[in-house]
Amino acid sequence: MDDLKFYKKNGFLIIKNVFNANDLNIIRSILISEFKSQKNPKILDVYQLKNSNKFLSEVFLSEKLYQKLYNIFHHREFGKIFILPPFTIMRNFFPKHSSHTWHIDASGEFRYKYCKDRILAKDYFFAKVGIYLQKNSEYGGQIDIIRGSNRTYGQRTFKSFLAKISLKMKMKFVSKLNANIKKFFEKKFLNYEKLNLNLGDVVVFDSRVYHRGSPISLDKEKKLSEYDGHYIKETENDETKFALYFQFGNLHGLQSYWYDRGKRLSGTGEREQWEKTKNHINNYYLSSNKDIPNEIKISLEYYKN
Ligand SMILES: O=C(O)CCC(=O)C(=O)O
Ligand SMILES: [Fe+2]
Predict the structure, then answer these.
(1) Ligand 2: centre distance to CA 100 (Å)
(2) How many angstroms does the Cα of residue 140 sit away from the middle of ligand 1?
(3) Residue among 202, 211, 230, 257 to mutate when testing ligand 1 (max atoms within 8 A of CB)
(4) What's the pLDDT at 182?
(5) Mind listing the pLDDT tens digit for each residue in 142-189?
(6) Is 102 in contact with 153 (CB distance < 8 Å)?
(7) Full residue range of the structural domain in which residue 258 is found
(8) Count of domains in the chain?
(9) Distance CA 258, CA 115 (A)
């Protein structure tokens, strides 16, 4: 099956060997000290890093990644594709197994007809690109995903209607289970997969696919006791989790996203974040004397309805 077909069928795609594992280990040490010098926040945007140009050139806007994404997703049916903010680094988000953190990223958009018309269209494309700086272990470190649930949320057929009701019921059921028995039933009912990317692989996942940050095991949760929600401020270096994300999609995906975000209170903050990213990326290309790839240039202009 070709990559695009696989993505459409399953709601995600793992692109192998995009980055060199040694380079990512270096990036990881840089991040550990960057975050430390900023008092270990939960999340930083790429423009908030001292070494931000390094992160743009070697990670988020790396030519190799861009070429791979472009080769797979630049397809007639999607039209133009955009590489989109926010370009973020999440640190130590360790969902507890006792909490229910399953979600689809586009869930807020289903409230609006404008968005539904786009989300349910054949050519809808909106995804997150995830780069993880550790393997998926007992500490989590990557994501769990329900293969194919993107189709349940992306079609108007009677079959998908039934599948949606069934999945919602299962979600409700597992959300009420006690943490100790949850592990077994959850796997059986939801039939999810814990992704296990190698260092250097990249995942692209559909905004309509059910997923969650892979939870930390009960044992390790007890060990790391200083919790603030799902966040742990202090960890040993080798237990520290970094997940890097940006968004990626076509015009219909982008329109649906902003129709919802524009109406939220957080919308203004996010507009500013996109504006800052835009300036930052423009400056990066100016200083490196490279031409801005078209997909990146047009991407950053768009944050209106
Ligand atoms: O990396 C994680 O822990 C999950 C993050 C996630 O689901 C999201 O940012 O939408
Ligand atoms: Fe998510």
Answers:
(1) 13
(2) 11
(3) 211
(4) 87
(5) 999 999 999 998 888 999 999 999 999 999 999 999 888 888 889 999
(6) no
(7) 3-303
(8) 1
(9) 9
